[in-house]
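Most newcomers find our protein records easier to grasp once they have seen one. The structure tokens are whole numbers drawn from a learned vocabulary of backbone shapes. The record below serves as our worked example for the rest of this section.
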Amino acid sequence: MIVKPSADSIATAARMAAQGKGLPPVEKWNPPFCGDLDIRISRDGTWFYLGTPIGRPELARLFSTILKREGEKYFLVTPVEKVGIQVDDAPFLAVDFEATGAGEAQVLRFTTSIGDKTTASSENPIRVVRDPASGEPSPYVHVRRGLEALIDRKSFYRLVEIGAHHEGWFGLWSSGAFFPVIPSAEML
């Protein structure tokens, strides 16, 4: 018989795992699947439990430290159990960024709504997906371990203001890498 863990048991395990330095090594953990837990991360980065927003940011942050992606599925994982959760788009939302330098020497540092920080680079790329029907862009930046953050609209507009043209593309420089956003010809 498989017993479904509760959010409390997952939170307790996450706290125990997080007592070490840095993030827990979820990529090394492969416990048995214990079923799905009614946790959902909405497109705006809000974490829900049983349909209700998790009101304590530190609890959502704690859960985020044990988040793992396998293919297109997301799990909260501890050394002894793994539960599935729903993610509407990306598990994180980039709500701000800081740009230093200019041109190829520019560095973009993003902050997510739960406090993660990531520097766009070849290891943490920026990518833009355009909706086939509307052409509306959805920009993302890699945060960690295959997990991305959707870049919020206000930050994306600010990024466009500092974008550059390079080899037929309009895009962004960060950490010596160029991230294409849209073909330059389509900007006219």
Observations:
- The chain has a mean pLDDT of 90.
- The first strand starts at residue 33 and ends at 41.
- Residues 7-18 form the longest helix (12 residues).
- The chain has three helices and 15 strands.
